[in-house]
Specification:
The complex is a heterotetramer of chains A (about 170), B (about 425), C (about 1000) and D (about 90). Chain A is built from 3 helices and 10 strands. Chain A has a 5-stranded antiparallel beta sheet with strand order 1-7-10-9-8, with helices on one face. Chain A has a 5-stranded antiparallel beta sheet with strand order 3-4-5-2-6, covered by helices on one side. The relative contact order of chain A is 0.20. Classes of the chains: A alpha+beta (about 170), B alpha/beta (about 425), C alpha+beta (about 1000), D alpha+beta (about 90). Chains in contact: A-C, A-D, B-C, B-D, C-D.
């Protein structure tokens, strides 16, 4: 977290993150998931927004047949049987914004339509933030990660900072 | 017709207002008319008036489900302009503007057509070029048009956001000085009163429930007040064209969508023109009563509910403050929605139909108010002669089949994107 | 008027200084501006809209029609605020409105003398001549006269926000019903948001004395609710609208505490409350009476007089005439009498209840039955009243007329979603109709005016709301259905308190047709009772006779009445006038009130600032910025940046020339002679993967992709379903089952959604995955004769020779351990390469190219030069692909060849598309020295009259340094488009007419030798 | 604000979705050359005042195309399904 920012009630840390996307074919969904689960280290999240953690790697179901494997480091390619689905490296297009501090609920309610109080730790939600699609992942009582498209990242950070300055 | 004038006001003022006659009668429907117009909105009433005035046809009924002027003529942002680019639109809307310029005197009813001009801001060099193209076309069609540079805009509208922090800076503007606004209710009432004076029967609270056929031909309408025979039937029910069209057996390329408008509390004059943002959906004028009247984009999904969603209100408010940072303390008094007939090319459909005896005037999208006089004029011609007036030749129903659409924004064929 | 030493919920130890019309005044913490004005002896608070008549404070809530003030100065100037809703704050500056030179002496009150000529709708009947533009002359003066307050032209410096809220149960109104509902729902376990527009919770209870039973109950409830973590009480918050999906629009006012708006708290916050269920406890609004001069300062709603007394400790009159047709005004009379006023009740009913008369006798209040007020007497304020009684006329001296014409439930919010209010004859009022799923009503809004019943209803509704939003916890809910315990403190009374119930001051009038009689008195020609204007809508100056006139002229539907007379169109939206107008029209038409109908209630219930609706989304935050990975380089290298959609793109570089026209020519010349570098990261990029990817592309593009070898790129064009060109771009096969598609910057999102649409709805059997990778890749184009040398220098490990990387070829590699793709494509006509790298290293890659390229003369170029280069090459772009052009129009039909089965194929052959008059793409070359072509010029044959739409237009132009000529692309009727034909390009805005020759749109290198080899 | 209950993301404001009109029209096969069928698919609309099947894409969320059945008079949402499953 950025130094000193906690004093302001909200810290914003920005970092690159690796994402690998796995997409299964509609008619091969069960086999795709059975094939993918052990490669990602066990079971897959059941619902969209649900996550599982495996060895510091995070798996999020991003759509009914689509998963993201998220990691801070580089991710080795994992081959998928083309009869079942496909894999795509998305390691460059998103920035991970870590938000933390006591203001977080007040800031988020001015950014996204998400009921923070009913969002469990480890739960994610895909949501619009000032016209931009983002993935919000609750990582603690007073912290979350926002995965935002790189081209919008600076603009959204400006928005968050501006909102944060108004929260008393 | 008991004439309205300053003298009649003085006379009545001195005699306790007791002698003002009914603005229009409330007749019972006759069993037969030469022409029955379904829909007592601006277009229907104007059509009746011009049928009588221009074509000498007097045996006419205008049938209205509720009260006259209760549809879109009474729930729009009252803007009148003729800044159209495409062949087919340009001449029609300019003809309409010319009729507006004489309308109060034609009708002996003050519709308060205020030619205060319309300014549309441009926010990129490309937009200035596009506005220049439009202005060139307008000039070549005898219509006043200018393209202003940033300084000229600033002189005309000093309260726009010219600061460094404007998200979309102002590069210039399109300006039509003869554009303006009118008092929308007065348009319906004025046409109604003038048509009534020609003997037109205006029948309110009478809903058309079906059509009477003789073989393939439509020869009248079924209504909640009984059958009414008609030599010709004209539909002018924009917003609800599909519903009546279906009863007549017409297949139409029309969807109903909501366009919202809002008004602020009345304040002393500040917005002296019609102004529009070029980087978002927002246009504003100030009524003579003092309220700022705002319009924006469609709500974006099919709807017959005469109410809009708050998201669109917020979109327009955002654009309004982005354009005019001084208005953020002004307060919205009301917002409401009108049901629009949206077509795949955002152009109207006004033509004879494949069904004998049935004529259609609809599909006005968000442009119906300013078209009211010309629409009435041309539809009257079409009803009287059986063939389209030359100015509406391009507005036929067959254009979607042939590809001769008039797509001003190039957003087709999705009605909700127009 | 005087401030008492007792009574009220004001803090007399905390004085608050403010000014009204420049005069320094003092109130107390807990005052509203209105109560403080009254306490300071202000009688005239404003001037009316049309006649500029003096007006006093009329109510104590948002229904206020008269006392509108302007607060603040400069950019903080805020007009038209009802003084009754403004919480008094230190240093508050209030000004009266619509008067000149002063409130006491307003020149425009002369309008009153001309009122016979200013009847409803008079302006429709005149101001039409003598010329067609005469209205513009009259309008000038009318506009000046209209409007209420004056707004500032300076930007509002304050901050507004929007926040998103959630609740199980939202309760609107913290009066007795709302408090009970909130408690019931909260005790059952719901998360409750209780919304109150006032700065103090209590609603009706605040008009009772603080130390009475009602006051004690309120205090107890507030203590209990404050102790519950799952209840959030939001005061100073107006619920202004109900929207689809049980979303409540809330406006939170935070006062004027923030001195520095950039740092401080928002002035107002728009709250969007998504509630699983909603309980409306919105109460009711007292109705006025209509009589001559009923607008004089000193005439006030009876309930307001009581509120000023009991809540604010202000006794607003010494000799009070209470005019009423119902019981509720008696409580006001009793309280005023107890506070020392001399009170007379003029009750228009024949026989008020005996116990009321007995109470009045004990309170020392005189009651005159069958007594109707006919007129208020007095110029700038009331001095006396004229009563009409069976025995004749009576004049009574009086300085306050407290009126009550019954109560109108505040049904507004319940009907915003289309539910029609229904009329209840027994209480002569509209109550909510059937409300939507998850919505409940309780208390006075339903027509219940007995306090015990109100609390019962609130409690029941709170429980029902809880059960609706959480059926799974309904067993717990049932347990909690008992009435609230009264253990919160002594004197707290629940619904079991019989005393409160019996003596309820809210009890409605007994069934009685008095109001409708009064209506016919007022309108049916019997206004001879007294001369003088009898107002229905105080703010808009609509009188009883205006309504009669509207009827006489045929404006009889309620909507016609409103629109013709402007009734209900003021800032108060007719909260006190609508019902009377409706009943008056019913009387005139001889119809029952419900048959006349009611006007539609539209949001907002109370006005909402435009700024609050916009929140932070204006200025820089109006829309988010999109920045490419190379953005900072452009800025630090003095690029002129241009907003293109949400993107910021370099338009030109100042190093290239001192204005855009000089710069772009230099930049394009450099690209033709050496090499140029352009940031094209904004292109849409889509990964298309899967066994059926090639088949999919075959369907979405007019040209085929199935046979495209891996490692090769192809230009493709897509149509819309109606056969109009949708977008173009290149697609590269990066693997057998993996394609890399690019789209135009403008259409990227539309193309993406369209592809997904086709897969999800039309061809779900195709095993294809599409993913936007627009943000994954930084993209830059190196174009020019030196481009290959530069590439080789920048990426020495890669073989970029013509054999290894031919035109339309692909080379993949790594750059700084990130993916790298080099595709040899030319948009400019030069030998050119598009270099794609991982976005995180995009700027480094750009710098490396610049560094490696500088010795070869590489310079960056911007959008203007990009557009110019493509025009020279005859490539179509946005100005030509304008949503109206077809394959044939753009000369692209050959791409489709004899293919079929692609999107838009069938409707793309509609008859009009082969019309010989249809404009087609042509090249144009200026043939006049010293003149130039301009986009947007209209093309005519030299002999033709210059009018109409011409034969076509110029779409894009550029000066071509290579040809030393102005060239352009245009769309021109085929019949006029023979190469070599000469046309005149007219540009009336500048008065230009320029000769241009039709040429091939490929101005340079027609054989493509520059980019091959 | 319409609240559309996305089958995988839960209830959301409609402005998270992209609207794409009538879903009751049937798209001809990609290689269908019949003009009339394409004409009707693209242009002819029932436009009912009442229940309306329509396409929405959850662009701010899962990006799935949905078929929503909604009453166009009162905006009551009767059902929401994945387009793919509605087709199946």
């Amino acid at each position: 977290m950025a130094n000193g920012s906690d004093q302001a009630g909200l810290g914003i840390a920005s970092q690159d993150c690796g994402i690998v996307q796995f997409d299964g074919w509609h008619d091969a969904r069960a086999r795709f998931e059975a094939d993918l689960a052990p490669r990602l280290g066990g079971h897959l999240p059941k619902k969209v927004g649900e996550t599982t953690y495996q060895h510091s790697k995070l798996v999020v179901r991003i759509a009914p047949r689509r998963f993201w494997l998220i990691s801070d480091g580089l991710l080795p390619p994992i081959d998928i049987d083309p009869e079942l689905g496909c894999m795509l490296q998305l390691g460059e297009g998103r920035v991970r914004l870590g938000l933390s501090g006591w203001k977080i609920k007040h800031v988020l309610e001015r950014c996204v339509v998400v009921d923070w109080d009913s969002l469990q730790e480890g739960e994610g939600v895909l949501v619009g933030f000032h016209h931009v699609p983002v993935l919000l992942l609750r990582t603690g009582s007073f912290q979350c990660d926002l995965f935002v498209p790189r081209s919008f990242a600076r603009s959204l950070v400006d928005w968050i900072s501006d909102v944060s300055s108004g929260v008393r | 017709m008991h004439g309205y004038s300053v003298f009649s006001i003085l006379r009545n003022g001195l005699s306790g207002q007791k002698h003002w006659p009914l603005a229009w009668r409330a007749p019972s429907p006759k069993s037969n008319y030469d022409v029955v117009i379904v829909g007592g909105g601006g277009h229907g009433l104007a059509t009746a008036f011009y049928l009588a005035e221009n074509h000498g046809i007097r045996n006419i009924a205008v049938i209205e489900k509720g009260y006259i002027g209760g549809g879109n003529v009474g729930r729009n942002t009252t803007i009148i302009r003729s800044n159209y680019l495409l062949d087919g639109h340009t001449q029609f809307f300019e003809f309409s503007l010319k009729l507006w310029e004489d309308l109060s005197r034609t009708l002996n009813y003050n519709v308060m057509f205020s030619q205060r001009g319309q300014l549309v801001a441009a926010h990129s060099p490309d937009q200035v070029d596009a506005f220049s193209h439009r202005a060139n076309v307008m000039r070549l069609n005898g219509i006043d048009a200018e393209v202003l540079d940033r300084d000229e805009v600033r002189r005309m509208v000093p309260y726009f956001d010219y600061s460094e922090t404007a998200r979309f800076p102002i590069y210039g503007a399109h300006w039509q000085s003869r554009a303006g606004t009118a008092r929308h209710d007065a348009v319906a009432w004025g046409y109604a009163r003038a048509a009534d004076a020609h003997g037109v029967d205006i029948i309110q609270n009478c809903e058309v429930t079906g059509f009477i056929r003789q073989g393939e031909r439509i020869v009248g309408v079924e209504t909640t007040r009984g059958q009414i025979g008609a030599g010709r039937v004209g539909l002018a029910v924009a917003g609800h064209t599909s519903m009546l069209g279906r009863k007549a057996g017409l297949e139409l390329p029309i969807e109903s969508h909501i366009l919202q408008a809002f008004v602020t509390e009345p304040i002393k004059p500040i917005v002296h023109q019609v102004v529009a943002y070029g980087a978002g959906h927002c246009y504003v004028s100030q009524s003579d009563k003092g309220g700022l009247v705002f319009g924006g984009g469609l709500d974006g999904y099919n709807s017959y509910a005469q109410r809009g969603n708050l998201g669109t209100v917020r979109d327009v408010a955002e654009a309004a403050v982005a354009l005019m940072p001084c208005i953020s303390r002004l307060r919205i008094l009301r917002h409401w929605g009108g049901v629009q007939d949206m077509t795949p090319d955002a152009a109207p459909i006004i033509c004879p139909t494949p069904i004998d005896g049935l004529y259609l005037n609809g599909g006005w999208c968000y442009g119906g108010f300013k078209a009211t006089p010309a629409s009435g004029w041309c539809f009257a011609h079409t009803l009287a002669t059986g063939s389209p007036h030359p100015l509406i030749a391009g507005y036929g129903l067959d254009r979607f089949r042939t590809g001769r659409t008039i797509d001003e924004f190039g957003a087709g064929p999705f009605a909700w994107l127009q | 008027m005087k401030r008492l030493n007792k009574l009220g919920r004001i803090d007399r130890s905390q004085p608050v200084a403010f000014t009204f019309d420049g005069k320094a005044m003092t109130g107390f913490r807990g005052d509203s501006l209105a109560s403080a004005m009254l306490a300071n002896g202000v009688k005239i608070a404003g001037r009316s809209f049309k006649y500029h008549r003096p007006r006093g404070i009329y109510s104590a809530g948002p229904e206020e029609p008269n006392a509108l003030v302007t607060l603040g100065t400069g950019g903080r100037r805020e007009p038209n605020l009802p003084a009754t809703t403004v919480e008094l704050a230190d240093g508050l500056v209030a000004e009266s409105q619509n008067r000149w030179p002063s409130l006491k002496f307003d020149l425009q009150s002369i309008n009153s003398w001309f009122s016979p000529f200013l009847a409803a709708g008079f302006y429709y009947k005149t101001f039409m001549g003598p010329t067609r533009r005469s209205w513009m002359f009259y309008e000038h003066f009318i506009r000046k006269a209209a409007g209420l307050g004056r707004a500032g032209e300076q930007p509002d410096p304050d901050r507004y926000e929007v926040r998103h809220l959630f609740a199980d149960v939202a309760v609107v109104g913290a009066g007795p019903a709302g408090l009970a509902a909130a408690l019931a729902a909260a005790e059952a376990g719901a998360n409750v948001v209780l919304v109150e527009q006032d700065f103090m919770a209590g609603g009706y209870l605040l008009s009772e004395t603080q130390d009475g039973e009602a006051g004690a109950w309120l205090a107890g409830m507030l203590v209990r609710l404050a102790g519950m973590a799952n209840v959030s009480l939001m005061t100073r918050t107006s619920a202004f609208g109900t929207y689809d999906g049980n979303v409540l629009g809330l406006l939170e006012r935070h006062g004027s505490r923030s001195a520095d708006p950039k740092q401080g708290e928002a002035r107002q916050t728009l709250g969007l409350l998504r509630a699983k269920s909603i309980v409306y406890c919105t109460g009711s609004i007292e109705r006025p009476l209509t009589f001559a001069n009923n607008d004089r300062p000193g005439v006030m709603l009876a309930s307001a007089a009581r509120i000023y007394l009991n809540r604010y400790g202000v006794l607003v009159g010494k000799r009070v005439l209470v005019a009423a047709d119902n019981d509720s005004a008696y409580s006001a009379a009793f309280d005023l009498a107890a506070a020392g006023a001399q009170v007379t009740i003029a009750d228009s009913r024949t026989q008020p209840a005996p116990q009321l008369l007995e109470q009045a006798r004990r309170a020392g209040v005189a009651v005159r039955t069958k007594s109707t007020i006919a007129k208020a007497i007095g110029g700038q304020s009331v001095r006396a009243v004229l009563l009409v009684e069976p025995s004749g006329r009576v004049t009574l001296e009086s300085d306050l007329v407290a009126v009550s014409g019954g109560w109108s439930p505040t049904v507004h919010l319940t009907s915003h979603l289309g539910s029609k209010p229904v009329y209840r004859q027994d209480i002569r009022a509209f109550v909510p109709g059937k409300v939507g799923a998850g919505q409940f009503v309780a208390g006075a809004v339903t027509g219940s005016f007995i306090l015990g019943t109100v609390i019962d209803e609130g409690h029941r509704a709170g429980n029902e709301a809880f059960m609706f939003c959480d059926a799974t916890r309904s067993s717990r809910a049932r347990v909690q259905r008992d009435p609230p315990k009264t253990d919160a403190g002594p004197g707290v009374v629940g619904d079991e308190n019989p005393g409160l119930r019996e003596e309820s001051p809210l009890s409605p009038p007994p069934e009685d047709a008095r109001l409708s009689m009064q209506v016919s008195d007022g309108v049916g020609g019997k206004m001879t009772l007294a001369k003088g204007k009898a107002f229905v809508d105080l703010q808009m100056d609509v009188t009883v006779s205006d309504i009669a006139l509207a009827h006489q002229e045929g404006y009889r539907s309620v909507e016609h009445l409103k629109r013709y007379t402007t009734l209900g169109m003021g800032t108060d939206q007719g909260k006190t006038s609508n019902f009377y107008a409706l009943s008056a029209m019913a009387g005139l038409r001889g119809m029952a009130i419900p048959d006349v109908g009611t006007t539609t209630f539209r949001p907002p219930f109370t006005p909402v600032a435009v700024g609050a609706l916009a929140g932070l989304s204006h200025g820089q935050h109006y829309k988010p910025f999109r920045r490419t990975p190379i953005h900072d380089w452009h800025v630090s290298n003095d690029a002129e940046m241009l907003e293109t959609g949400l993107w910021m793109r370099p338009w030109f570089y100042h190093a290239s020339g001192h204005d855009v026209n000089e710069a772009y020519v230099a930049e394009m010349r450099n690209a033709r002679e050496a090499a140029g570098l352009m940031d094209i990261s904004t292109l849409g990029k889509i990964a298309v993967q899967g066994p059926d990817a090639a088949e999919f592309l075959d369907r979405v593009y007019v040209n085929g992709f199935a046979k495209l070898p891996v490692g090769r790129a192809r230009y493709g064009v897509m149509l819309r379903d109606d056969g109009i060109v949708f977008d173009d771009g290149t697609t590269t096969r990066v693997g057998d089952q993996h394609f890399f598609m690019t789209t135009s910057t403008a259409r990227a999102a539309d193309v993406m959604s369209r592809l997904e649409f086709l897969l999800d709805t039309a061809w779900p059997d195709l095993r294809v995955s599409v993913s936007s990778v627009s943000d994954e890749w930084a993209a830059m184009s190196v174009a020019g004769p030196k481009s290959r040398d530069i590439l080789a220098a920048a990426f020495p490990d890669l073989d970029v020779s013509n054999d290894a990387l031919p035109h339309m070829g692909l080379l993949e590699g790594r750059y700084r351990d990130k993916p790298l793709r080099i595709i040899r494509l030319s948009f400019s006509g030069e030998r050119a390469y598009e270099i794609y790298t991982g976005a995180s290293v995009g700027k480094e890659a750009w710098c490396r190219l610049m560094e490696a390229g500088t010795p070869f003369g590489l310079k960056p170029y911007g959008l203007e030069a990009l557009g110019a280069l493509r025009v020279e090459k005859g490539h179509v772009a946005g100005p030509e692909i304008d949503g109206r052009t077809t394959l044939d129009d753009l000369g692209l039909r050959r791409m489709a060849g004899k293919r079929s089965g692609f999107v838009g194929e069938v409707l793309g052959r509609r008859e009009a598309f082969s019309d010989p008059e249809r404009p087609r793409l042509v090249g144009l070359r200026c043939v006049e020295d010293g003149k130039r072509l301009r986009g947007g010029a209209i093309l005519f044959r030299p002999s033709e009259p210059v009018q109409g739409h011409g034969l076509g237009r110029i779409t894009s132009t550029t000066y071509s340094p290579t040809l030393d000529a102005w060239v352009g692309l245009g769309l021109l009727a085929s019949s006029a488009a023979q190469e070599g034909a000469e046309l005149i390009a007219h540009y009336p805005l500048k008065g230009e007419a320029v000769r241009a020759r039709v040429v091939s749109p490929t101005f340079l290198d027609p054989k493509g030798e520059w980019f091959h080899g | 604000m319409l609240q559309i209950k996305c089958p995988c993301c839960g209830p959301r404001d409609h402005d998270e979705f992209l609207y794409a009109g009538d879903a009751s029209v049937s798209r001809p096969a990609h290689n269908d050359a019949d003009f009339e069928r394409w004409y009707r698919y693209v242009f002819v609309r029932e436009n009912p005042a009442g229940a309306h099947r329509e396409y929405w894409q959850h662009v701010m969320g899962c990006r799935q195309w949905l078929i929503v059945e909604r009453n166009t008079v009162n905006h009551t949402i009767l059902s929401v399904n994945f387009s793919r499953e509605a087709l199946a």
